[in-house]
């Protein structure tokens, strides 16, 4: 069974940084592309960053240049380094497998950026 556990969220002032972690189990982690999503109140869930099994990355325009996605296959973990945070980044952040057949939504981790 696929299990994804997010951690690292919290309350931070605008301009600050956070690093989110996502621990995966139940999959051969190294062969899957992974992504970070977020959902703010009243808004649709959106993909903010993804990383392929080969390490290639993609970012939403709203976070490009500020966020960095990475992975450690030895630890079955994907990370999201978030710098220069803005109040508009406030959301619940989720990680997931990009392949629809293996997607499993966890509880996410709350990121709140104050002004």
Q: How does this model look, in words?
A:
This protein is mainly beta. Helices cover 0% and strands 50% of the residues. The strands form two sheets. Strands 2-10-9-4-5-6 form a six-stranded mixed beta sheet, with no helix packed on it. A four-stranded antiparallel beta sheet has the order 1-3-8-7, with no helix packed on it. The protein starts with a strand and ends with a strand. The model has no long low-confidence stretch (mean pLDDT 97).
Percent range of helical residues: under 10%
Main β sheet profile: 6 strands, mixed
Overall body shape: globular
Mean pLDDT metric: 97
Radius of gyration: 13 Å
User: What is the count of β-strands?
Assistant: 10
Number of helices: 0
What is the strand content? over 45%
What is the H-and-E element order?
EEEEEEEEEE
Termini, distance in Å?
40 Å
Show unreliable segments. none
Strand order of the largest sheet: 2-10-9-4-5-6
Which structural category fits the helices and strands? mainly beta
